[in-house]
From TrEMBL:
Domain of life: Bacteria
Organism encoding this protein: Pseudomonas violetae
Keyword Oxidoreductase attributed: yes
InterPro entries xref list: ABM_dom, Dimeric_a/b-barrel
Lineage of producing organism: Bacteria, Pseudomonadati, Pseudomonadota, Gammaproteobacteria, Pseudomonadales
MF term (GO), any: monooxygenase activity
UniProt keywords, alphabetically: Monooxygenase, Oxidoreductase
Pfam families registered for this protein in UniProt: ABM
SUPFAM superfamilies: Dimeric alpha+beta barrel
Domain ABM: 10-73
Protein name: Antibiotic biosynthesis monooxygenase
Length: 121
C-alpha cells in the first residue's frame, strides 16, 4: 500500500537543450534562481543543476516537501521580475522539457558513510 500523496515529497525536473556556448551562463542563471527559490519558498528540500559533457544540455532538479509547495513556488517563479520564460529566451533554449514526480524511494549516504533508504508506502 502506498502512502497518501500528501505525504510524498515532490520533484521537478527541467531539462534545457542549448548551444554549448550558452551552457555556462544558463548554469549561472539557474544557480541564482535556485538559491532564491530555496531562500524564499516554504517546502524547499534540495536542488541540483547538472551540465552535460557535450555542453548541449542542462538539468535542473528541484525537490519539495509537497506537490503544492513546488507548484506554488513555480507559479511565483513564472511571474517574477526575472521570470522563467525570460530565462529560456535569454539563453536561447532550443527545447525545455518539464517533468514532475512523486518520490517513492530514495537512498543516500550520510556524513558517517552509512546508507539510508527511505521508502514511501
Amino acid at each position: 500500500m502506498q502512502a497518501p500523496e500528501k505525504n510524498r515529497s515532490f520533484t521537478q525536473l527541467i531539462e534545457f537543450e542549448i548551444e554549448p556556448h550558452q551552457q555556462p551562463a544558463l548554469v549561472s542563471a539557474l544557480s541564482m534562481q535556485t538559491e532564491r527559490l530555496a531562500r524564499d519558498y516554504a517546502g524547499f528540500l534540495s536542488a541540483s543543476i547538472q551540465a552535460s559533457d557535450d555542453g548541449r544540455r542542462v538539468l535542473n532538479y528541484l525537490q519539495w516537501q509537497t506537490r503544492e509547495a513546488g507548484e506554488a513556488a513555480f507559479r511565483q517563479f513564472e511571474s517574477g521580475e526575472q521570470d522563467f520564460w525570460h530565462l529560456i529566451r535569454a539563453h536561447q533554449a532550443k527545447t525545455v522539457t518539464f517533468g514532475s514526480f512523486q518520490v517513492l524511494h530514495s537512498l543516500e549516504r550520510s556524513h558517517d558513510n552509512a546508507l539510508h533508504c527511505h521508502l514511501v508506502g
